[in-house]
Amino acid sequence: MIKCILFDLGGVLIDFSDEQYIKYLAEKSGMGEGKVERLVDPLWKRMDSGDIHVKSFEKGASKLLGIGSREASLLEFYKSRVRSNKPMLQLALSLSRSYTLAFLSNVDRTRYGISSGLLGKVPFSYRFVSSVIGLRKPDPKVYRYVLKKMRMKSSEVLFIDNQTENVAGARRVGIKSILFTDKSALVEALKKRGILR
């Protein structure tokens, strides 16, 4: 029986995806998106794990892509584009009447500080941030960590994320998961599982 709904933030409750920034860097550097992603991915993972600060990430990206540090500013880009996904936050708020709510996000501390102010009045009982706990999705260890901290079995948690690999990672440890595309598809999936009527 599901007791907890575990959300991703970016691309689900928050309107922002890392792909937007990768596309922006590709335009600034004149490189293809795939190449940009391959170059900055190791830095991104270190930032999300809390090993390096966002400023170090920006410096590294600037050097790797041959663009100015201002052009590589993830923080400026993030601040100018990040928004609440209000329909999803309303859905989360309605789910909070019957379920424990939590979120698990791959994000650095600085961007999390910005994002947390966009979550409105949704009562999250647990907030898991990769850069704070030193683990990131889709590593199976992060899902086990979350289950242990919430004192829940995998069968008691439903995970919602917009990245295929993160959903697959959760499923590998027995957590039922839904790949998020949009609110209406999610509502249908929740109805099929008896979470919503």
Structure characterization notes:
The chain is of the alpha/beta class and 197 residues long. It has 2 domains: 4-15 and 83-192, Rossmann fold (3-Layer(aba) Sandwich), CATH 3.40.50; 18-81. It has helices at residues 18-29, 33-48, 54-65, 74-81, 86-95, 109-116, 130-133, 140-150, 164-172, 183-192; strands at 4-7, 14-15, 83-84, 100-105, 126-129, 157-161, 176-179. A 5-stranded parallel sheet has the order 5-4-1-6-7. A two-stranded antiparallel ribbon has the order 2-3. Helix 9 links the parallel strand 6 (157-161) and strand 7 (176-179). Helix 2 packs antiparallel against helix 3. The protein is globular and about 50 Å long. It starts with a strand and ends in a 5-residue tail after the last helix.
Keywords, separated by commas or semicolons:
197 residues; alpha/beta; Rossmann fold; five-stranded parallel β-sheet; two-stranded antiparallel sheet; 10 helices
User: How is the largest sheet built, in terms of strand order?
Assistant: 5-4-1-6-7
**End-to-end CA span:** 16 Å
Mean of the pLDDT scores? 97
Full CATH superfamily name of the largest domain: HAD superfamily/HAD-like
Output the helix-strand order.
EEHHHHEHEHEHHEHEH
Shape: globular
Number of separate helices: 10
**Which fold name is given in CATH as the topology of the largest domain?**
Rossmann fold
**Into which percentage range does the β-strand content fall?**
5-15%
Radius of gyration: 17 Å
CATH level 1 name of the largest domain? Alpha Beta
Helix content: 40-55%
